[in-house]
Amino acid sequence: MTLTIIPVGFFDSDWSVLSPDAAPGRRLRIPVYSYLIRTAHSQILFDTGCSHQCRVDPAGLLGDDTIPYLSPELTPDDHISAQLQKLGLVPKDIDLVVNSHCHFDHAGGNEAFISNHIAMQSAEYEAAASDRQAYPDLAYRPADPARLTLLHGDTDLEPKVTLIFTPGHTLGHQSLLLELSDRAVLITSDAVYTRAHFSTDCLGAAQDPDLARKSLKRLLEMVQDGARPFFSHDPDQAVQEGWRLSPYEYV
Ligand SMILES: [Zn+2]
């Protein structure tokens, strides 16, 4: 099995977006990622980044009020389809697309996979369908409902590839645990935005803070047991910890 961490753009963001208890004013350039997992049996994509609309018309998608706090810095090259092309792949090469959750920066790139199988938590799909304000980008919705698999809690996709149900940030959020040959890697997605959020004292934006705290404790325990965490929007982690990005493959 291999893991490739694919950068799919940035946001110019206010820290208060990531930490609702903080005062506005501290600016950060935060990354967005997608993850390619290749096993002996399949090629899986975990999260898909932003849609084309998010780049072309961010205010139209996210609302004028959002842009001063969270402004996309996206080029056409940042779209997941362009990033896959660099790896010699086209969308039909992907056997399964999995979304951590349906927010626009994690499922907007689903638009490139309209013929693919997509999997997400049932609770997330229901939440997204009933809250257009929190889920303004409808790109998460599969064109063909028959190709959508709705999951219920922790799920083994394959041996050593496990989705961990981590609700709180959204009601149906999930993270991904990969048991690579060297060491387990825990892709937290938005259950933990940054290293600073990997503590019960500093909760990120959460639809249900109690659930988010419980999920965070679970992830902390997995890291105590040896998993190496990779956070969804940490501006410094990749450089500070020496993570290598696409096309590098962790094995
Ligand atoms: Zn996010």
TrEMBL record:
| Any matching Pfam family | Lactamase_B
> Which Gene3D superfamilies would you find in this protein's record?
Ribonuclease Z/Hydroxyacylglutathione hydrolase-like (3.60.15.10)
Kindly list the residue ranges recorded as spanning the membrane: none
Q: Which cofactor does it need?
A: Zn(2+)
GO MF, one example: metal ion binding
Hydrolase keyword on record: yes
Task: Tell me the ranges covered by the Metallo-beta-lactamase domain, including all copies.
Answer: 31-233
Instruction: Give the record's keywords alphabetically.
Output: Hydrolase, Metal-binding, Zinc
Which InterPro entries does this UniProt record tie to the protein?
Answer: MBL_superfamily_lactonases, Metallo-B-lactamas, RibonucZ/Hydroxyglut_hydro
* Sequence similarity: Belongs to the metallo-beta-lactamase superfamily.
Name of the protein in its database record: Metallo-beta-lactamase domain-containing protein
Please report the organism this UniProt entry assigns to the protein.
Sulfobacillus acidophilus
